[in-house]
Amino acid sequence: MSAFSIALIVFVCAFGGALGGMWLANALPEHHVSAGSKDVIGLGIGMIATMTALILGLMTASAKGAFDAKDAAVKHVAVTILALDRALADFGPETREIRALVKTAVAQRLAETWPEDARDMKLGLDYGTAPAEGIAKLITSLSPQNPSQTWFQGRALDMSGDLLESRFTVFGGDGSSVSSAFLVVVVFWLTVIFGSFGLRAPRNATVIVILIICAMSVAASVFLIMEMDTPFTGVMKISSAPVRFTFAHLGQ
Length: 252
Fold this sequence. Notes:
Blueprint lengths: L2 H25 L7 H57 L4 H18 L1 H7 L10 H9 L6 H25 L8 H21 L4 H24 L12 H9 L3
Helix pairs in contact: 1-7, 1-8, 2-3, 2-6, 2-7, 2-8, 2-9, 3-4, 3-5, 5-6
């Protein structure tokens, strides 16, 4: 389900709860909505509101932490790929084929992860299959002729191993960092909170508008959380600029 769909559900539940509370205010007997009853309701809702704020804070921190970690990993991968290309170039001309495979692998990742940017770069359709694991094997098969080439081969192998680990970190863990149980509980609590607002609020246009704005605000906060939870799609996504910069400078 998309972030917008989830935010829309949150808005409908919150504002629907407010309307339900207004309906209950007229349907309940008078002593159920007396001043004393409203005071007790206010105390209970205050406790729920505090827990809701805490859970929303935890969800935001979890999504933001996962987003920042993947963003940092993408930048690290881009820098390491460029360094790997330079190490292979310093090894000698016999690494030309391996460097071409590295560039092909980067082009494939750009096309898979950032298809819009890949189309703008006009990568073309002539990139075949270039598994990253095979590149490490080709580096291992090199035959260094002097200590300098031995050092560059070892350096390239270290970086290729680092790239594999970083790739699995970035693209291997596509699971959500936001617990579905937390999300369901938060939506339920928001519905209860807005229901209490409607139960205690007078029925006029100003109150309705304010309740709509409040419901839109909490829905927007959930939207941002869910957007950060999908770092390669949607409105808030990790930039492809580091990878595009690396691709432009490979093979030089």
